[in-house]
Design a protein that fits this description.
Layout lengths: L1 H28 L4 E4 L2 E4 L1 H28 L4 E7 L7 H12 L3 E7 L2 H9 L5 E4 L8 E16 L10 E2 L7 E4 L8 H11 L5 E5 L3 H9 L5 E4 L10 E7 L5 E9 L5 H19 L1
Parallel strand pairs: 3-4, 3-5, 7-11, 8-9
Antiparallel strand pairs: 1-2, 5-12, 6-10, 6-11, 6-12
Length: 285
C-alpha cells in the first residue's frame, strides 16, 4: 500500500505536464495516440505503430547527428571548383586528387571558366574556389599563390628552332606567334607581349585564341609558334615540341587559388589546407 501511494503521488505531480505533452504530440501528428478510459490510458493503433518505429527513428537521429559532425569537420559536402585550360593538365588534378583521397565523401564539381567568369561565379556563390593566373586584387577575395611555372616555346618539330636546347625572345623576332588567352583581363598573352616590348623585339601575332589546346593545335598545323607554361607542354599533340624560353622578363608565371574571404565553410578550409601543403612543397623543391 505504501508503494502504491508513492506511485499515485508521483503520477499526480507529473500528470498535468505529461498530459500536456501527450496532447501536444497528438496535435502535431494530427492523430489520436491515447485513449482515456476509467481504467487508465491505452495506446491506439497509431501509437502502437509509432512505438514500433522508435528504434528506426533513434537510428536515423544517430546517423543524422553523425553526418552533421562529419560535415562540421569538412568530411561531407560539396566543393565547386573553377578551372581553366592549361591548369587542368598538371597541377589542379594533383590537388583535387589529394583532396579526394582525404575526403572521398565530398562531392567535387568542376566548371571550366575564364578568369572573369570565375570571379563572378565566386561572388554569386556558384563556385567555392577558383584557379587562374595573375588574379586582380579584389577586397572580397583571398588569393593564395600555388606555384610559379617556367615558360616554354612550342613549335612544330620541323621548325629550325627545334634544334636548339632553348629559345630566346630574340630568336622569336618576326616569327608568326599564336597567343592565348584572348581575354580582356591581364594574363599570359599580355605577359608575352610585354616581354617582347621590354626586350625591344618585334612580335608578329598570327593568331589569338581562347585556350592552350587550340593554341598547340595551331602550332601542330605549322601556323605559328607559341609561348606556354610547363603545364601546356603536357599536351603531347603530334608534331609539337617544346623548348625552355630564355628571357630576362618572362621567366615564369604564377598559378593562384582564389576564394571568398567571408567563406568559412569546413570543406573549403580542408581543401585550402591541401593547397597550402602543395604550395609549401613547391617552394621547397
Amino acid at each position: 500500500m505504501r508503494v502504491e501511494r508513492e506511485h499515485a503521488i508521483v503520477a499526480q505531480q507529473q500528470g498535468p505536464p505529461l498530459s500536456r505533452q501527450m496532447r501536444q504530440m497528438e496535435d502535431e501528428l494530427g492523430v489520436e495516440l491515447f485513449v482515456r478510459t476509467a481504467r487508465g490510458i491505452q495506446l491506439t493503433e497509431a501509437a502502437q505503430s509509432l512505438l514500433h518505429d522508435v528504434p528506426n527513428i533513434l537510428e536515423l537521429a544517430r546517423l543524422a547527428r553523425e553526418r552533421a559532425l562529419r560535415a562540421g569537420k569538412g568530411m561531407l559536402g560539396d566543393l565547386h571548383v573553377g578551372i581553366f585550360g592549361s591548369g587542368v593538365l598538371n597541377v589542379i588534378p594533383k590537388l583535387i586528387g589529394a583532396f579526394h583521397a582525404q575526403r572521398p565523401e565530398v562531392r567535387i564539381r568542376l566548371r571550366n571558366l575564364t578568369k572573369g567568369e570565375q570571379i563572378q561565379a565566386l561572388r554569386e556563390h556558384r563556385i567555392t574556389v577558383g584557379f587562374h593566373r595573375l588574379p586582380p586584387v579584389e577586397p572580397d577575395l583571398a588569393v593564395l599563390l600555388v606555384l610559379r611555372e617556367p615558360m616554354y616555346v612550342g613549335m612544330h618539330e620541323s621548325h629550325a628552332l627545334a634544334r636548339q636546347a632553348e629559345v630566346s625572345i630574340r630568336d622569336l623576332e618576326r616569327q608568326p606567334m599564336v597567343l592565348y588567352p584572348n581575354t580582356p583581363l591581364a594574363g599570359l598573352a599580355q605577359e608575352v607581349m610585354g616581354a617582347f616590348r621590354r626586350e625591344k623585339v618585334q612580335i608578329a601575332v598570327e593568331q589569338e585564341v581562347e585556350d592552350v589546346t587550340t593554341c598547340v593545335g595551331l602550332v601542330c598545323a605549322r601556323l605559328g609558334l607559341c609561348i606556354t607554361t610547363e603545364s601546356g607542354t603536357m599536351l603531347r599533340l603530334p608534331g609539337a615540341v617544346f623548348r625552355p624560353l630564355r628571357s630576362r622578363f618572362l621567366k615564369d608565371i604564377e598559378l593562384s587559388c582564389v576564394h571568398r574571404k567571408a567563406d568559412h565553410s569546413p570543406v573549403l578550409a580542408a581543401f585550402m589546407e591541401v593547397v597550402r601543403g602543395y604550395a609549401g612543397d613547391a617552394d621547397r623543391s
